[in-house]
Structure prediction request, 200 residues.
Amino acid sequence: MKIYKLIPILFILLSFQTVLALGVTRPVPHDVELMRGESADFTFQIQAVTSTEKISCVYFLSDMRPLEVKFDSDEVIIDAGSKKDVYGTVTVPENTPFDTYSGTLSVSCGAVSQGDSSGSQVRTTIGGSPFSVDVVEVREKGIKEIRPEEKGISTEIIILIIITVILIIGAYYWLNKPKKKIPKKKSNKPKNKKPRKKRK
Prediction:
C-alpha cells in the first residue's frame, strides 16, 4: 500500500482525537421548578482545554416537550485550549400539564477546517447529562439567576457623581454672585462751616 493512500485515514484518526479532547459540564441548575408561564435560565460549559484545534459545537436538549427550550446561540466556536459557557432558557407554556419533564443534554462537536466556520464532517456527540423541570401549581424553590451581571456604573458611584456636581455648581455660583454694596452711614456731626469774613 502506498503512503499517500494512508493520508485520509490518518486525517480521520487525528480528527477523532481532537474531538475526544473535549469535556462538557453538567447543566446548572439541572433540576428546575417552574409554574405555568414561567421561564428559567440554565448554563453548561464546553471545555477544549486539551484540544489543539478550533472546535465547532452544536447542542440540543431532547425529550422536553411540551416545554420550550431556546439557546442564546445555535452554535459556538471554541478556540484551541479554551472553554466556552453556553446559556439557554426553558419556558413552560400556560397550558402545560403539571408533571416532571426530564431530558438529556447532548453536544455535537467537530474540528473547524481553515476557511470554514462550521465543523468538519468528522463529528462526535458528547452528552447524556440529565436535565429536569417540575411543572407545579405553586413553586417552592426560587429561580436562580445564573447569568453574569452586566458590568456598569454602580448606584453608589452615580449618587456620588451627582452630589459632586451639585457641590461644584453651588460653589461656582457662591463665588461669582454679585456682592451687595453696604450703604455708608450718614454722620450726625455738623459740617464745619467756613467762618464768614468780616466786612470792614
